[in-house]
Amino acid sequence: MKKIMIALTLILASALGWAQSSSGSRPASAKAEQNIAKEVRHEILMLPYYGVFDSIGYSVNGYDVTLTGEVTRDTLKHDAEDAVKHIEAVEHVNNKIEVLPVSPNDDRLRLAVFRAIYGDTALQRYDLGVIKPIHIIVKNGHVTLMGVVDNKGDKDIANIRANSVPGVFSVDNQLEVAKG
Question: Parallel, antiparallel, or unpaired: how do β-strands 92-95 and 55-61 relate?
Fold first, then answer.
């Protein structure tokens, strides 16, 4: 009887150890994380409704991906999560994307800021292509500019143009200047 109890205890302990090791995130090599990050970026950029008024970021930790950012549509939040979940190496997706509140005033500001920035002759070259490099996030009248521009002058012009739109309470210029 004692041998049976010891055998059952060992089996139970090994089963618990396996369950804990499979539920936690296992470490991934740097190359594996880079490959996952590349795939996540591709999947986000391929989302059909991802646009200039949305911003989705991500981080990769082992085989786990955390999605962050702000989007104008609830469906886009779920589409992003579903797309990343289907990447072969991804084990878990933590979706922290915020869905911006529905607001006719914010919609008006989005369009006005878009026209102010992309209509400026110095910034018109950024209006080429489907995916715009300057993302305009508007929440309750507050504007955040995200993305990448070629130089500090373009970053400053985008900031000035966004601040010139009537009804904008504040502008948080998080544009990054491309290196090289």
Answer: unpaired
How many Å separate Cα 66 from the centre of its chain? 9
Look at residues 15, 123, 104, 88 and name the one whose alpha carbon lies nearest to residue 115: 123
Burial (CB count <10 Å: 0-12, 13-18, 19+), residue 127: middle
Element (H, E) at 142: strand 142-149
Does a structural domain hold residue 15? no
CATH number at 115 reads 3.30.1340.30
Q: Are 117 and 170 contained in the same domain?
A: yes
The pTM assigned to this predicted structure is: 0.80
Q: Which domain holds residue 71?
A: 26-99
- Ranking 22-31, 72-81, 149-158, 165-174 by mean pLDDT, the lowest is 22-31
Sign of the Cα torsion 111, 113, 119, 125 reads negative
Which pLDDT score is estimated for 10? 41
Give the span between the Cα atoms of 118 and 100, in whole angstroms.
Answer: 22
